[in-house]
Sequence to fold (263 residues):
Amino acid sequence: MERFRSAFNTARRLPDAQAESVLRDLLTQYPALPPEEEGNARYSLAMAMLRQDKRDEAREELERCCRLLANVPGPEYALAMTALARVQLACRDAAQSVNTGRAALELLRSRLKPDDPRLAPSLFALSFGEYETRHLPEAEALCLEAKKLWEAQKGPQSLEVSTCLNNLGRIYEEMGRQEDGIAYHRAALAIRRNALGDHPETAFSMGNLGTALAAAGKWREAADMLEQAIACYARCGHAEGGDIEGYRRNLDVCRNALAQEKL
Fold:
């Protein structure tokens, strides 16, 4: 078992494609592992697959992982369920993702203290699922709770907090609270500009802010921000993509509105 654990710990530090290959070999070489050991190995294999965008394969491994860890004490089973909920959402199975995420969070709350930072990823993942299924009050409450935990663990200027702020901005836009949405997008952008500089995530925040401003009819500021987003993407080597095309369309709307105001 020590040889397996040593090889497993080495594999986890490898680049994803290499880690996937090594972990597959390990699971073949050790076919009679205890459930906890096999479950943890399959969890790492699934994460390596997911980071390579192998969503269906990652989902299958996480389902096996959850079956193995179901009777293991500690938070590992709930954390695996959270990862499965994320993959289900990536596979566009939002309703199942919410069901899995709710069960994972309930189990995790029963095994961790309320201020344990390991709750934050589960809260955030479920919040996104609730948002996708338009359960907006639930999405808001979960995201605010995740934000509070990450602020305590990583600091108020962390990228995790910026991601919560970004998602809260989108939630408030959907609720019709446009000014709140704009304020949260501004806060998310400020953190990303400071932490990342020119980066696709910074450009993404610029685009989200520009889109929120356009929805509020603030055409000039929206156009300026959308232009900044597209330029930032270009400096990062990205000239095409779904988000970029969406920002270009929104920029055209802003320019047309500004032209109409001059008539």
About this structure: The mean pLDDT is 95. The chain is about 80% helix and 0% strand. The two ends are 78 Å apart (CA to CA).
